Amino acid sequence: MTMTIFERCAAFVTGHSWRVIAMGLLATVVMAFGLGRDAVAPRAIGEAELDTPAHQALERIQHSYDLRQPVESYIIVRTSEDDEADALSQFDVLNGLRFQAALRTLPEVAVSLRPGDGLHGFENLIGKALCAFDNAAEPITLDGRPWEETGRVPQGDCPLAVQIARLEALTASEYEALREAVLSPSSSPMGANLGIYLPMQVDEGVEDDFRARAIVMSQHYPAHIGLTEEAAHQAQLAVQSELSRWFDDAFIYGEGIVKAESTRAVTESFRYIAPIGGLLLVALLVITFRSLKDIVLCLVGLMLVLLWLQGIRSWLQVPSTSILIAVPFLLVGLAIDYSLHVVMRYREQLEGVHGVPDARQTKKAMQWGLVGVLPALCLAAFSTAVGFLANYFSPLVSIRDFAVVSGLGIVATFLIFSAIVPAIKTEMEKRCAGRKGTQVQWALGRRRIGSGRWLAALARFAVRRPRPIALGAAVVCVAGAIAATGLKTSFDRTDFIPTAPPQWMQILPAVLAPGRYEVRENVDYLVDHFRLLSRLLDAEILVEGEVTDPDFLHAIERVARRRATESGTLITDSPASLMRLAAFHDAGFAQAVRERDEDGDGLPDRDIVPLYDALFELAPERAARVLHRVDGRYESARLEVALLLNAQSEAIASDIREVARHLSEHAPVHAIATGPSVISANVQNALFNTLVIGFSITLCVIGVLLTVLYGWLHGGYGIGTILLVPVLIALAALLGAMRLLDIPFNSETVVISSLAIGIGVDYSVHIGERFLAQERLAASLAERMETVLTGTGGALLGSTATTVGGFGVLALAISPPLQRFGIVTALAILLTFIATMLVLPALLVLRERWIDRKRA
Questions:
Q1: Measured between alpha carbons, how far is residue 145 from residues 142, 153, 164, 307, 526 in Å?
Q2: How far apart are CA 343 and CA 299, in angstroms?
């Protein structure tokens, strides 16, 4: 009798198990050698992969403008409602100056601060006014209100120690007089922007008791004067550690603070998740396998899969990207599933053996168990790997990397659990055969108790009520698709900031309990009370064309008069704003503007070039930030745009593009929205669209392959399509659940959703292949379905419980990305299992009955 290819493979694995183990060890050594290769630097998704107008505009800006923009952090000092004095009292302002002086003595802080204005706040306006009075030709008495002669409180320059000493010498009445003058719009220091230092209510004229104020820390641009980004962040952390020594209630917001807290959230999450998840996983493996040697075998296989995965990445020099985070989780889920199928099918073959099996019986059981499971493993691995590899033709390099790593990883997982693990299992059982105490464990779901009873009932229900099940699945699919239309598809910039841990975590031991997390609360406070923005260079607009046309300046003014967008974007620097600032400070320039101002709006209506030239003479550095000239000709202009901390990336990009469109429509110029936020949105959109299209192609390729393969192997071309239906239903239900849970469907979660494809196809193929294999062995359709669901279904139940429990525990994380990953991963696997165990049997029953009617 001719042996099939699967029978020959199984015979070789069990008959030459040591050869298979040796080849597996050799392959593992080769993969391990790959780990010693030089690591490739991590790459951002979409980095250097898109060539959009925004990318080109940013390159031209970087080439034409000197933009060594400082890194700004914000120190907020608050006083409570119970305090008699407010945040602007003489004591608090004096304390603020002393705090600044202390910070400048810290080496890591001092080296990062910009000279002059490295630290500036309301206290510095007071201190510099005292410097101006000290530098006056004749002594000035503050009670005489000396600023009334010029109309503005003057600003001088002297060391912080002098400012502190002078402020200490002021009487209470003198300080109150000076404070009122600095706060008054009519006498505040020339060029001072009180809105930076005081809450919005104060700045907008609403009565307030000054319970908070801000100090801005301005650091050198990273890489300028050799300062690294890490050094700038460390300086912010050093300031944070000093706050409690000087203030009762204060916090600092900066990129370094956010990064440190986000990193700590991941570390502390794993600190308590690891033992919880580890105990849960071990408990589930014990319940599922009920055998120490099988648990160890499964864990060995898992370690080999992860080692081979890292080896593949190292040999192919694939850099790390956030999209690759889904690959190891996908492979772990498949590995546990493959392991359970191999072990449970082996146990099924021993169900008729009485007593302790001998070496011949264990070898035969492993061989025929492998024969039964190999077709499903091969079909699932081949179709899924090819489906993911179809993304290799994506225009994004990161997606091509994902396609190669996931496809080869699936093949590696198949080889490990269809050859190496069965070979090890064969040798283990041969050495344990005949020993006293060695018992044959029953396969999960095969006994009419517990899960076995439930699975048998499910089989009977699928045979008796296939149409209601199919109808219910269709309703769920449609409902999920409709709900998915309301999914948020963009990132909120605060989505990655940790929130305060829930109350139940207080019961954890001190060694496991997470610390305090305040950045998210602080961000909300900044957004609600201050006009402080994250970074001025989050977005910008490059304007090319006739930038010397008066209509261009007026178009800027029309946009700048209001908060330009719902996300709070507003123009903070432009040729128009610089021109107004120069006119305010220089009488000659103001006269030149008035001579050209025909409508009295404070902007020139003709002859713009001489004014631009004058700007380069008055403030060359500021002018070079907003205007670019070559041989006396002005070729472009640049507008800086600031953003609210909680603005969404896509909203930012859309809003700034609208501002650019307005400029292009109202002046003879071409305005292009660009900057990190706009480019990030472009990359996210391109990535999201590519992923959706790529995974759609993956599903189509898998569907075609399954249809062709099942038509070739079993003569049933329609069954391949049927096997894909539960995957589509699970995806629709997953999207609907994400909508209900308010989880966004973006490039972060769409990658995780690929788990539903990879594991869903695997689950469906196992059920479908077992169903077809039982066609001639079962006396009736009901018996056939019961064998399938209590046998293969039992393995799927164990696999689902283990993977959902292991990954679902990540939902307890305080890191939002980890939390979302745990929730979506657990949902994807659970919904896939439900669709496979409930919908697929019903569809298979309907197919069989349709075939019977056709034959009749």
A1: 5, 9, 21, 76, 34
A2: 13
| DSSP notation for 488-552 | --S-BTTTTS--PPPGGGGGS-TTTS-----HHHHHHHHHHH----S-GGGEEEEEEE-TTSHHH
What is the spatial distance between Cα 552 and Cα 603, in angstroms, rounded to a whole number?
A: 11
273 residue type, one letter: I
Give dist(CA 597, CA 461) in Å, integer: 85
Most confident residue range from 223-232, 320-329, 411-420, 777-786: 411-420
Sign of the C-alpha dihedral computed for residues 605, 610, 613 and 614 taken in this order: negative
Task: Decide the pairing of beta strands 627-630 and 250-253.
Answer: unpaired
* Cα 330 versus chain centre, distance: 18
**How many residues can be counted in the chain?**
856
CA 281 to CA 326: how far, in whole Å?
19
Q: Is 532 left (phi over 0), alpha (psi -120 to 50) or beta?
A: beta
pLDDT confidence of residue 26: 94
Q: Which two tokens stand for residue 241?
A: 């550690």
Rounded CA-CA distance 167/161 in Å is 10
Contact 274, 798 (CB under 8 A): no
Token pair 């679902």: residue: 808
Number of H helices, E strands in the chain: 33, 9
DSSP state of 69: P
How many other β-carbons are positioned within 10 Å of the β-carbon of residue 137? 5
Give one word for 378, left, alpha or beta, with left for phi > 0 and alpha for psi -120 to 50: alpha
pLDDT-derived band at 195, boundaries 50, 70, 90? confident
Task: Supply the pLDDT for residue 307.
Answer: 92
Rounded Cα gap, residues 605 and 611, in angstroms = 11
Complete DSSP assignment for 826-842? HHHHHHHHHIIIIIHHH
pLDDT tens for 463-512 read 899 999 999 999 998 998 888 887 776 666 667 778 778 777 877 787 77
Q: Is 252 helix (H, G, I), strand (E, B) or coil?
A: strand
Between CA 741 and CA 771 the distance in angstroms is 36
**In Å, how far from its chain's centre is CA 409?**
23
Examine the pLDDT at 30 and tell me if it is beyond 60.
Answer: yes
303-319 pLDDT per residue, tens: 999 999 989 988 888 87
HEC sequence for 304-368: HHHHHHHHHHHHHCCCCCHHHHHHHHHHHHHHHHHHHHHHHHHHHHCCCCCCCCCHHHHHHHHHH
d(CA 359, CA 351): 16
CA distances from 648 to 67, 131, 681, 687 (A): 25, 44, 9, 17
Determine whether 474 is exposed, middle or buried from the number of CB atoms within 10 Å of its CB (0-12, 13-18, 19+): middle
The radius of gyration computed from the CA coordinates of the chain, to the nearest angstrom, equals 35
Tell me if residue 300 falls in helix, strand or coil: helix
- Residue range 414-418: average pLDDT? 92
Structure tokens at 91: 């004591």
Query: For residues 634 and 628, is the Cβ–Cβ distance under 8 A?
Result: yes
pLDDT band at 707 (very low <50, low <70, confident <90, very high): confident
CA 442, distance to chain mean position in Å, is: 43
- The widest CA-to-CA distance across the chain, in whole angstroms, is 117
The helix (H) or strand (E) run that includes residue 77 is strand 71-78
Residue 111 one-letter amino acid = V
Predicted structure pTM score: 0.74
For the record, the structure tokens of 317 come out as: 């020099």
Q: If we measure between CA atoms, which residue out of 288, 294, 285, 289 comes closest to residue 429?
A: 294
**For 641, phi and psi rounded to 5 degrees?**
-125, 130
Dihedral Cα 179, 184, 186, 190, nearest 10 deg: 60
- Phi, then psi, of 17 in degrees rounded to 5: -60, -35
Q: Among residues 103, 835, 854, which one has the least CA distance to residue 477? A: 835
